[in-house]
Amino acid sequence: MCSLLVAGSGVAQDVEPIVEIPPEPVTRPNIVFILADDLGYTDIAPYGSEVNTPTLSALAEQGVRFSNYHTAANCAPARAMLLTGVGNHLAGVPNIPEMLAPEQRTHAHYQGVLGDNVVTVANLLEGAGYHTYMAGKWHLGSTPNKLPSRRGFQRTVAMMDSGADNWEQRPYLPIYDQANWFADGERFTLPEDFYSSRFLIDKTIEFIDSNIGNGQPFFAYVSFMAVHIPVQAPQSFIDRYMGVYDAGWDVLREQRLQRAVESGLVPADTAMTRVSTTGDWDALDDDRKRYEAKRMAVYGAMIEAMDFHIGRLVEYLKSSGQYDNTIFVFTSDNGSEASGPADPEAFPARLGPAGQGYHTDYERLGLQGSYNSISPGFASASASPLSFYKFYTGEGGMRVPLIIAGEGLPRKQVSTPAFAWATDITPTILALAGVEAPGARYAGRPVLPMSGRDLSPLLSGNADRVYGEEDAVGYELTGHAVLFQGDYKLVVNQPPLGDGQWRLYNIARDPGEVVDLASGQPVIFQRMLARYQLYARDNGVLPLPAGYTQMRQLVTNALHQQYREVILLFLLTLLVLMPFYVAYRMKRKR
Ligand SMILES: O=[N+]([O-])c1ccc(OS(=O)(=O)O)cc1
């Protein structure tokens, strides 16, 4: 017998001692969130690609492959949703800042940087005792309070811009004075032997290894620069794709469609549209065909190199005994990119390689000092069998691979056609980690609730959908707009590739967006149009400034950036000279 203080009673009583059985330690999983940049729907082997991606194929075997997952049509808006579970307009990222017009920037939620009204998945996991790491592209704000190190990531090495060189610390567009890299909140100089995919995985392994065995799980966000422009890869990988694309983009588009059908990603009778930027392959002369095929070979090589380095991370986790307790989420920020936004032909001529001191020689294509991108025809093949590509709200810009996998997950080797959206990633990661989503306040400040859905019922097989028939998801980027509801998609694409007409598709039966149902299904069409208007109102979608196009705005912003100093100096000189001029005039008058 012994005296125990009974909780709350304040009196000592003689009772039998209770033998405390320690609770089973709950092993919370490590989570690796891998984000590729500009990877098209059929760019990896488990989605029908000819590119050899054994690591991603093995991961797909270890979990669930989503065939109907959608994301934003360009970078930062997607990242805002992926990392917060909140719609991108509400989170302050309607577009990348590089493409916002001055009229738009007068609105607080049109800054293109992640607002303080949202919490990142890293904040929440860190608060729940996770180690949180990030390596790669950030692009959600580069002022000190917007760095990933201030948004919940404990260890970081991050590139701030829309893209950068993969071989050295060098900007890829003249809108940047330098390639802006930061590590743990400080400016960072890249090592001499830098290649982006290798470096980012090296850093991820270093971060994980520095805390191994201390009992806390980790969350690692690996945000690859592959396969954003400039498309660059090591020679040994390029060699494997020489000759693979010699038959051109139309043949590749067909091959990928066939494999997507065979692997059950899309219906057998999927038809395809042809966007106007896809050139006539047969009309190209042999030199041009050879050059285009090599541009694409470097692209395939960059994907395989990314897969190879993910493989190194998997090997490290296996050899250190952490793999079995790790869940992987692999996806892309948006669909494939055709060398430049809106007007691809204009990009190389006006902003591209020459002005930046890059070369585009055939022999050294993809290596250090070379500027490479894929042409629109191959971007369409990367998105095969979908229509359009990055920057547009066609399926090719928005539907991308999503794999969620890990030893500990109950279902393996399965595919789901359930609709899923970028805001679902954070709630899903939180559910897998057993962490509560925040309410209306976080760390003493009001925050927006997450609108995303937890996808884990699809992982366990407890549900075959997480969005019901009545649930609608809206999205807008520079006038290209969309509403998903059930199997239907209401969509408008603006010029130059689109025609500004709203259309209606059944994307379950017709993922290629070939049969417009707008006039055949007027009730659904009108109902979804009305629903889109609600989305636009509730999310503060602004009308486009007159004459706005993404490319024109990017170029204008770039010129402002480049000539800012010159203009300022000119104005200052005017200001200094003005009194002398006035004095001179007055003297003459007298
Ligand atoms: O080609 N560009 O000019 C270009 C490409 C991509 C881009 O941004 S991203 O962040 O959406 O990838 C910005 C500009």
UniProtKB/TrEMBL annotation:
Pfam families: Sulfatase (PF00884)
Molecular function (Gene Ontology), one example: metal ion binding
Annotated source species: Kineobactrum sediminis
Family listed: Belongs to the sulfatase family.
Keywords on record: Calcium, Hydrolase, Membrane, Metal-binding, Transmembrane, Transmembrane helix
Positions of transmembrane segments: 566-584
Sulfatase N-terminal domain residues: 29-435
Protein name per Swiss-Prot or TrEMBL: Arylsulfatase
